[in-house]
């Protein structure tokens, strides 16, 4: 220690008063308190952010499950509709026999949709018989 002290001219350094030391200690305490307060604020923000992330993840999972459930429901309803349409009686389709027998009454068409080719064929036969 004496080697360090002898290397520098310490007479140029003014000594610290007790008041100055006390002020420096108080300033360090205030600074430490401010840092601790900021640290606590950052900790609370981090906790809030983690909670938001967890909630978003849960909400995303719930939305995905809800969408899957809705898609299953729509698929079931579609299957039931297709099944009920395919099981419906075809009482309204104009038969080839009724047209070839000279009947000009084409009847009414059921809610089932005939293909364009079927409709064209039936109309063509009807026009030939009436024409």
Structure, explained:
With 131 residues, this protein is mainly alpha-helical. It contains 4 helices and no strands. It has 2 domains: 16-87; 90-131, no CATH class. The protein is rod-shaped.
Mean pLDDT: 76
Number of helices: 4
Distance between the termini: 129 Å
Structural class category: mainly alpha
Number of strands: 0
Helix content: over 70%
Brief characterization of the structure:
The protein has 131 residues and is an all-alpha fold. It is 73% helix and 0% strand.
Entry keywords:
single chain, 131 residues, mainly alpha, 2 domains, 4 helices, 73% helix
List the helices and strands and how they pair.
Elements: H1 2-7, H2 18-86, H3 96-100, H4 116-130
């Amino acid at each position: 220690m004496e080697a360090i002290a002898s290397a520098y001219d310490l007479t140029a350094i003014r000594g610290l008063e007790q008041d100055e030391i006390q002020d420096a200690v108080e300033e360090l305490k205030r600074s430490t308190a401010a840092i601790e307060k900021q640290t606590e604020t950052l900790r609370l923000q981090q906790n809030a952010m983690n909670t938001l992330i967890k909630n978003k993840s849960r909400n995303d999972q719930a939305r995905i499950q809800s969408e899957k459930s809705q898609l299953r429901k729509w698929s079931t309803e579609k299957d039931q509709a297709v099944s009920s349409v395919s099981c419906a009686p075809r009482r309204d389709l104009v038969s080839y026999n009724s047209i070839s027998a000279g009947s000009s009454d084409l009847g009414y068409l059921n809610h089932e949709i005939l293909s364009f080719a079927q409709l064209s064929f039936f109309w063509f036969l009807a026009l030939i018989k009436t024409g």
